[in-house]
Amino acid sequence: MKIKGIELRRIAMPLKAPFRTSFGVEYARDILLLRVEAADSEGWGECVAMSEPRYNSEYVDGAADVLRRFLIPALPLDVTANTVAGALQPFKGHHMAKAALESAVLDAELRASGESFASYLGATRDRVPSGVSVGIMDSVPALLDAVEGFVAEGYVRIKLKIAPGSDVGPVAAVREHFGDDLLLQVDANAAYTLADSRHLERLDAFDLLLIEQPLADDDLVQHAHLARRLTTPVCLDESIDSAAHAAAAISLGACSVVNIKPGRVGGYLEARRIHDLCQAHGIAVWCGGMLETGIGRAANVALAALPGFTLPGDTSASSRYYSKDITAPFELNDGHLDVPRGPGTGVEPLPEVLAELTASTEWITG
Ligand code: OSB
Ligand code: MG
């Protein structure tokens, strides 16, 4: 596929409600979109890097910089999605920037051939169950209210963000209020250390599906120690930035579940490799989220339809995040999202909405 040029577009998406985690609070998303213009098709990719390097080392201005200065110029004139990672491999890190570029190329390629992301990746289902990630709230009543609303909407699994000082109490309150049938899990975003093991053991009382990323991203060995102490399954997010890391984590016994985020691991092709590896080792996977717009969400939902994705993902409806999405909104149907089946991601930005939210654009050739 011959590429004529690539557009970098920054959009400002206000969140419906602030989203608080152990690493900060987000009021709006500052999102970088890529549009690849090829000879007879175009493709879109969403970069999931956040505005500040708090979740991981990437941030949106850094992603734009590395794309324009190094990654886009390294692409061969004639490229397929399969060759993108190899062409970008000399440049270390920057997985979210690389993933956005590979996704946009893959979208353009699949639109040209008429195949969907779902079919290309090997999806085996036409809808996926939706979980929702609930930020840290100011009070337990506010948290119960928020969870109540999501349960009423039909979300099939609730994930609570936790941090030291806001963990056992809120989790106990939610379990108590909603009963034993609620599928419940927690995400610490690396806020604890192994010295907190005894405290984290208290979460074992609440029959959680998993605890996500309790310790630092580079604490694989410590996660293995913690996993032996907890009955709650340990799931890794930030620690897994490639299939190689997933293999290391599995062989160490650092986790029994993996959150797969295509951006974090450098793209949908690496995401599929992690799925395959985990499936072969009996490690459950689920699709994480980075508060994506409809562009990134469409591809995530396709990935989440692969057979090894046996737990509900953070694949929520557009309305959980935004009052107006840039694509036709993803809507919850009986707690599920439909997997798009059109060519490529199967969704397109709505031109008027996109124009309204665009802060800047930049056109890069060869
Ligand atoms: O750790 O999973 C995370 C959002 C931004 C950064 C990191 C995380 C999250 C979420 C929200 O938990 C997932 C979503 O609904 O997109
Ligand atoms: Mg997480």
Itemize the secondary structure elements and their pairings.
Layout: E1 3-21, E2 24-38, E3 42-47, H1 60-74, H2 81-88, H3 95-113, H4 117-121, E4 127-129, E5 131-134, H5 140-153, E6 157-161, H6 168-178, E7 184-187, H7 197-201, E8 211-212, H8 220-229, E9 234-236, H9 243-252, E10 257-260, H10 262-265, H11 268-280, E11 284-287, H12 294-304, E12 336-338, H13 351-357, E13 358-364
Parallel strand pairs: 5-6, 6-7, 7-8, 8-9, 9-10, 10-11
Antiparallel strand pairs: 1-2, 1-13, 2-3, 4-12
The protein binds 2-succinylbenzoate and magnesium ion (MG).
2-succinylbenzoate binds at residues 55, 133, 187, 189, 237, 288-291, 314, 316.
Report the CATH topology name of the largest domain: TIM Barrel
Mean pLDDT: 98
Number of strands: 13
Given the C-alpha coordinates, what overall shape results? globular
In which order are the strands of the major sheet placed? 5-6-7-8-9-10-11
- Hetero groups: 2-succinylbenzoate, magnesium ion
For this structure, the quaternary state is single chain
- Give the name of the CATH architecture of the largest domain: Alpha-Beta Barrel
Helix content: 25-40%
CATH superfamily of the largest domain: Enolase-like C-terminal domain
Main β-sheet, in a few words?
A: 7 strands, parallel
